[in-house]
Specification:
alpha+beta; three-stranded antiparallel β-sheet; 15% strand
């Protein structure tokens, strides 16, 4: 969790110096946000966040922002006095920079029910049967057999698995029959296809 923000509707001297009291409800809120490793932010411009139309009421700070404790460089939220429109609460904004992330878009896979899958399983099983397991008297011997089996599976995987492009449309259930049916529909534009 990176951020929690909103109207917490809790008056407290911790975030509103004009309010002279402290509440145990505030302590509970701080315990909760601390459990998510979040800390209370101080806005770059110190303004109240709620203004009342009631002449007997008091303006206060009720809208708060909590940010991940290790994100000091993001401590830049602003209270916008002129953006409230008809609301009596001021709008809070924060700028969070994002970095470009390299997302893996290709994986190796064997299609369920394919000839490649059958060949892969057949080859792994035959290779497993051929392993010499007559001398499994100690842990190093067992580790050696396990290592050999791991190598067999890896080599067979390389042999039969194909690169598959991962997209937002990738579905585990999609197969060649689906592709053929879609192609037929695209050619005929017939709803029955």
């Amino acid at each position: 969790m990176l951020i929690i923000t909103g109207d917490f509707n809790i008056q407290d001297s911790l975030w509103d110096p004009a309010f002279l009291h402290h509440s145990t409800i505030s302590d509970n809120l701080l315990i909760i946000v601390d459990s998510f490793d979040l800390s209370l932010l101080t806005s770059t411009n110190q303004f109240l966040t709620r203004y009342t139309d009631n002449p007997n009421g008091s303006n206060s700070v009720l809208d708060l922002m909590f940010l991940q404790s290790s994100s000091d460089k993001l401590n830049n939220h602003i209270i916008h006095l002129d953006w409230h429109l008809t609301s009596n609460h001021m709008l809070l904004t924060i700028t969070i920079s994002t970095i470009e992330e390299n997302i893996i878009s290709v994986k190796r896979s064997i299609v369920k029910g394919s000839e490649e899958k059958k060949s892969f399983i057949k080859e792994v099983m035959a290779s497993f049967r051929s392993l010499n397991m007559s001398n499994l008297s100690d842990i190093p011997s067992l580790k050696k057999i396990i290592g050999n089996f791991t190598d067999i599976v890896a080599e067979s995987w390389k042999k039969y698995a194909k690169n598959i492009n991962i997209t937002k449309h990738s579905k585990s259930w999609w197969n060649k029959n689906c592709s053929r049916a879609l192609e037929k529909y695209r050619n005929t534009k017939n709803l029955e296809d």
